[in-house]
Amino acid sequence: MKFFVLVAAALVAPALAAPAAIPITKLAGPAKENSYIIKLKDGVSKDSHVARLLEFIGGQDSKVIYKYENVFHGYAGVLKGPILDYIRRSSDVEYIQTDTIYRIEYEQGDESLSSREVHTGDQTSHLVGRAANGGGVDIFGLDTGILTTHTAFGGRASWGATYGGYASRDGHGHGTHTAGTAAGSGFGLATAANIIAVKVCSDAGECATSDIVAGVNYVVSRAASSGRPTIATMSLGGPTDTAIDSAVSSAISRGIHFTVAAGNENQNAANVSPARVAAANTIGAVDSSNRKASFSNYGSALDVWALGVNVRSAWIGSNSAVNTISGTSMATPQVAGILAVVIGNKGNSSPAALSSTLKSNAQAVVTGAPSGTTNLKARVW
């Protein structure tokens, strides 16, 4: 009997010693079913870990969708049952989070109150005598895509990549509008810059964390291969998301300039990703009177404000279509255009240096923002 008890204890001991399952971080809002982001610990070989995982998956109903190469030490996939349990008990893993779905939000503007003249006229007045309007600079729009044939782009728009399994076209309009605000002739400032579509959002305006991180990863790869000054503009965001924040921060550390939307919930932008990323340029929205837009987020995370009410820009439907809409989504690419023009005229610098100069040359004219929020409106210098 004693022998039996000892043997039983020996068999149970390894089970008791098995590593505890890592909890899955469930972020606010909806998520893609059975889709997860896996962050590996520093020092862990991603290739070896994924190779072992794929061997374990075999013919089971799970798969790795992305193995991120540049900005995030991990991967994303559809992971079910014993496969997910295997990952949760792996000592290689730092954290696991659900694949959150964000929605692009904007308000339909009033064409009769369009701020096009204020938007382009006031801004381009600073360009008198300047040699370039963003020439030699690449602006990547992580959005719903771009109607690259729109006349506003004059052949400077191109399709970069699509993530999420969507059609490689802008079936929504938001991405074309933001691209026009950054670099569209008649709408934006950087009228000599290249504008590149990185589609990470569906035609319904839904964007998953895994696809957004893949898009950021792509921008870093393209910038490394081109050697050109690179700006990424992200008119999207949502609840705090460690994976997105980590990817954006990593890309900035590699020399990519980011403009990101503060958000449209009239709340503290510190509660929004990637708006809360300290090294990014976080943009709030004002109206044509330089007053905080009623919807715009605020707080110490904001770096500058820009026009975001009744902004007229390119749209889908035809190569000359336009639309007037409002949101921090509209303010954000205006600053991307400003940065492109400055880089084109003065040369590139580090993201930190350019952000500092952006703020030191901004105008202290914004009213209506809560205390603790900057009153600086971006402008070309």
From TrEMBL:
Q: Key word Protease present in the record?
A: yes
Q: Which SUPFAM superfamilies match?
A: Protease propeptides/inhibitors (SSF54897), Subtilisin-like (SSF52743)
Signal peptide as annotated in the record: 1-17
Q: Which GO terms describe its molecular function?
A: serine-type endopeptidase activity
CDD domains per UniProt? Peptidases_S8_PCSK9_ProteinaseK_like (cd04077)
Question: What residues does the Peptidase S8/S53 domain cover?
Answer: 142-365
The highest taxon in the source lineage is Eukaryota
Q: Per UniProt, which keywords does this protein have?
A: Hydrolase, Protease, Serine protease, Signal
- UniProt-listed InterPro entries: PCSK9_ProteinaseK-like, Peptidase_S8/S53_dom, Peptidase_S8/S53_dom_sf, Peptidase_S8_Ser-AS, Peptidase_S8_subtilisin-like, Peptidase_S8_subtilisin-rel, S8pro/Inhibitor_I9, S8pro/Inhibitor_I9_sf
Q: Which Pfam families match?
A: Inhibitor_I9, Peptidase_S8
Name this protein carries in UniProt = Cuticle-degrading protease
Q: Can you cite an annotated GO cellular component?
A: extracellular space
Annotated active site: 143, 174, 329
What species is given as this protein's source? Answer: Rhizoctonia solani
| GO aspect biological process, one term | proteolysis
Q: Which family does it belong to?
A: Belongs to the peptidase S8 family.
Task: Cite the Inhibitor I9 domain residue spans from the record.
Answer: 35-104
